[in-house]
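[audit] Reproducing an earlier prediction to check determinism. Same input, same settings, fresh worker. If the tokens differ from the archived copy the diff job will pick it up downstream; this log only records the rerun itself.
[audit] input (135 residues):
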Amino acid sequence: MRLSRTLIAAIGLGATAPALAADNPLSVHVLDIQSGQPSPGIEVQLEKRTESGWESLATGITADSGRISALYPDDRDFTAGVYRVTFETGDWFAEHDTRTFFPEIPVPFEVTDPSQHYHIPLLLSPYGYSTYRGS
């Protein structure tokens, strides 16, 4: 029986089923560099830039591993263009009784080859962050 990526993400298996997520072209991972631990429970929004502005494509929540292994929607073709993932970090920090300077972190990126996998890691602390193209 094959589970859909949506069902896998909903029940939290995304981080433990990398082979199933391999079909999805986009993943994210958030690590709290202050504690050295993954950051579960962060909402991540995915959008694509169009001629009329940003189009919302998907929203996910990081799993216990701090990952969303399959963020791109199953029912859409992955095409070249400019995308943006926005990490909603303010609520996560508030839940951990920590003040932050960054209530959200938007990360725009360009897809030039839709046949590749795109991974966006976020290294997070209350007053700084870093990101890069992962694998």
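[audit] rerun output stored. Observation attached for the diff report: The chain has a mean pLDDT of 87.
[audit] end
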